[in-house]
Design goal:
Elements: E1 10-18, E2 29-31, E3 37-44, H1 47-58, H2 70-78
Antiparallel strand pairs: 1-2, 1-3
């Protein structure tokens, strides 16, 4: 979403590196002017416009990942993974 012009994105090139070798800092990204790799970093954007656009996307009814209810999602999360790719959820058709 940061590519959208109305968000007023400001990109800045910075040299960064990913820390490794210390359990407390592994995976952290830091600015490293000497050894870092040059990447474009999003420095700022219009946060109100961003959240407004994000809210519109969440309300889009044509999303491919729409879930009917929290209970339905909870059932999917608690269903064991089946290696065949089939849904192991027990269907309850008694109404």
């Amino acid at each position: 979403m940061s590519e959208q012009f109305h968000l007023n994105p400001v990109m800045q090139a910075k040299k960064i590196s990913v820390l490794a070798g210390n359990l407390t800092t592994d995976g952290q990204i830091t600015v490293d002017q000497k050894k870092g790799k040059l990447v474009n970093v999003l420095d700022s954007l219009d946060s109100e416009a961003y959240y407004s656009q994000f809210a519109k996307l969440l309300g889009n009814k044509t999303q491919s990942a729409v879930v009917g209810s929290f209970d339905e999602q909870k059932r999917k999360w608690s269903t064991p993974y089946n290696e065949t790719g089939k849904d192991n959820t027990i269907k309850d058709f008694s109404m």
